[in-house]
Design goal:
7 strands, globular, Transferase(Phosphotransferase), domain 1, Cyclin A, domain 1, two-stranded antiparallel sheet
Length: about 575
């Protein structure tokens, strides 16, 4: 059991626990720790897990004496690495970075069929999306920290693969492989054993913030010399996991296909692979496959305004969305925080046991934004700032009480798909090959994915997605369908016609034909046409300036007669 105090004068449930519980409440994998119950009441949070009394560290070093660890048998190491990598691949396919893998955070459960690993302690977990963002470097216990984190700058899923490689080496030799006493010493420990990286082995190395040309230059070493007593295929897998360049480092999913694991029985492999995407197209599409699974669970929503919520209507909802977008803009928060917050608002209104009074509506929106920001933003918006944005019509205490009610109602299931997620996934996939949806299997880095979202088509798409967020018509729909309609209409606005209007290969991430999208595109066209005369100005104002292509200054077309709705997707 974990216990946390939610201090009345604080910011509610701590952001790190919120992120951990958001992931674990939706996780279902044999090698991820099993969350059994969450109890939040009266400023106290209790989290219950399956009881497991042993960690991998205990297995490697049962006496807990310094330098007393023992290598594990090769067969056991192989089974454990399969289980560990399948758990890491499961996390990554859901846009989750663990960021603190080490033997003490890996539970070992024993039963009649043997020992099973379970990844635990997700306190430093980060929920990612498309595009990727730059995260804090204050992660991962020093001995298991990847060189891209030590050298500063951007990092993605490879940080967990490096940590898993350190765990792999520790199981093989009975002791940690890199035992630095500072960040610089940790780098030197790595370089002295593996050889110093170069610009050819790691492009962009010299641009890392903490890189120095004064670093010693150690020669590269063969892995069979570093680990002379391990099987050749184990050394080969380690060499691929210990690649310096994160873009060339093997992914956890690809590592599961390494010949090292070929002799594992199918009954061990299948349960771990079943929750993953059935086919590997790209990491972005794996993430989309996960989002579709969540979407099937939560959407479409029932009609909730005027029925379950008699005091609220579409106008009230539109005003709330306009205000939330303005707050996100003023505080320079992630746009995704606004989409997630609106998603939480809609789910709460659709599932609440009692109707909300109109006087509570802005408080609900503000609290949902606070929850979304704690999960999404590096620097989340505080309760006092939210109270100030609401002209102090609600108090600090009101927000924390509403947060408790929301989290209990939603059962901490806070990972939800948004139209922005599906839209960005589509735009990034299309950018990989200049318009074809079939791209490489490597996940794009921060710079590449951001560049894909700065085209004229992308700016139109984001403007339309925000306008759709404001419309109640789209609130009840599946977010993937909203995203498809937005992309379709955006391509029409940038001049795509006939067979080029709907991209070839789009069926990989979108099951909708242009005929399916007809009514939604017409609704988007109406929202676009009405934006200039609307009293809700926050969204349009964001897209008037040149930094977002000034697309809001362009009038909507008079009609959509140029679209042939009868054609199916290519």
């Amino acid at each position: 059991m974990k216990e946390a105090r939610v201090y009345p004068e604080g910011e509610g449930v701590p952001y790190y626990m919120l992120r951990e519980l958001a992931f674990l409440s939706s996780a279902n994998h044999a090698h991820i720790c099993n969350l059994q119950r969450v109890h939040l009441h009266d400023s106290s949070l209790h989290v219950f897990f399956e009881y497991v009394d042993k960690t991998l560290h205990d297995l490697i070093n049962p006496t807990k004496q310094v330098n007393a660890g023992q290598p594990l048998p090769h067969g056991q190491v192989k089974r454990f690495m399969w289980q560990l990598l399948s758990g890491v691949a499961y996390c990554h396919s859901r846009g989750v970075l663990h960021r603190n893998l080490k033997p003490k955070h890996i539970l070992v459960k024993e039963d009649k069929s043997g020992c099973h690993l379970m990844i635990s302690d997700f306190a430093l977990v980060r929920l990612t999306a498309v595009p990727l963002k730059t995260f804090t470097a204050e992660v991962v216990t020093l001995w298991y920290r990847a060189p891209e984190v030590l050298l500063g700058g951007q990092y993605v899923t490879g940080v967990d693969v490096w940590s898993a490689a350190c765990v792999f080496a520790e199981m093989l030799q009975g002791a940690p492989i890199f035992i630095g006493i500072s960040e610089v010493d940790q780098l030197f420990q790595i370089f002295s054993k593996l050889g110093s990286p170069t610009d050819s082995s790691w492009p962009g190395l010299a641009q890392r913030p903490n890189f120095s040309f004064q670093f010693p230059n150690w020669p590269a070493r063969r892995f069979d010399a570093i680990f002379p007593d391990i099987p050749a295929d184990a050394a080969d897998l380690l060499s691929k996991m210990f690649v310096y360049d994160p873009s060339r480092r093997i992914s956890a999913r690809d590592a599961l296909d390494h010949p090292y694991f070929n002799d594992l029985p199918i009954e061990m492999r299948e349960p771990a692979l079943a929750p993953l995407a059935p086919r590997k197209l790209s990491p972005e599409l794996d993430f989309g496959y996960f989002l579709q699974g969540i979407e099937d669970k939560f959407y479409p929503l029932p009609d909730f305004l005027g029925t379950k919520q008699p005091e609220l209507d579409a106008t009230h909802r539109g005003m709330l969305v306009d205000w939330l977008v303005e707050v996100v803009d003023v505080y320079q928060m992630s746009l995704r925080s606004a989409f997630i917050a609106v998603g939480h608002v809609d789910r709460v209104l659709a599932t609440a046991y009692t109707p909300f009074e109109r006087s509570q509506f802005q408080l609900l929106g503000a609290t949902c934004l606070h929850v979304a920001s704690k999960c999404e933003d590096v620097s989340y918006i505080g309760v006092e700032d939210l109270a100030s944005c609401g002209d102090n019509i609600y108090t600090h205490k009101d927000v924390l009480k509403m947060e408790e009610n929301i989290l209990n109602l939603l059962q901490f299931q806070l990972i939800i798909p948004t139209a922005l997620d599906f839209l960005n996934m589509m735009l990034v996939e299309l950018s990989k090959t200049g318009g074809s949806a079939r791209g490489p299997t490597r996940r794009q880095d921060v710079v590449e994915s951001e560049a894909a979202l700065k085209t004229t088509q992308s700016r139109w798409a984001h403007y339309l997605a925000e306008l759709a967020l404001q419309e109640y018509y789209f609130a009840q729909m599946r977010p993937s369908e909203v995203a498809a309609a937005v992309l379709f209409y955006a391509r029409f606005l940038v001049g795509r016609r006939s067979h080029n209007l709907w991209p070839a290969g789009a069926e990989q991430y979108c099951s909708y034909s242009r005929k399916d999208l007809r009514e939604s595109v017409k609704k988007l066209h109406h929202a676009h046409s009405s934006a200039a005369s609307s009293t809700l100005r926050a969204i349009r104002k964001r897209y008037l300036g040149p930094e977002r292509g000034s697309v809001a200054q362009v009038s909507a077309p008079d009609d959509l007669s140029a679209i042939d709705w009868g054609l199916m997707a290519s």
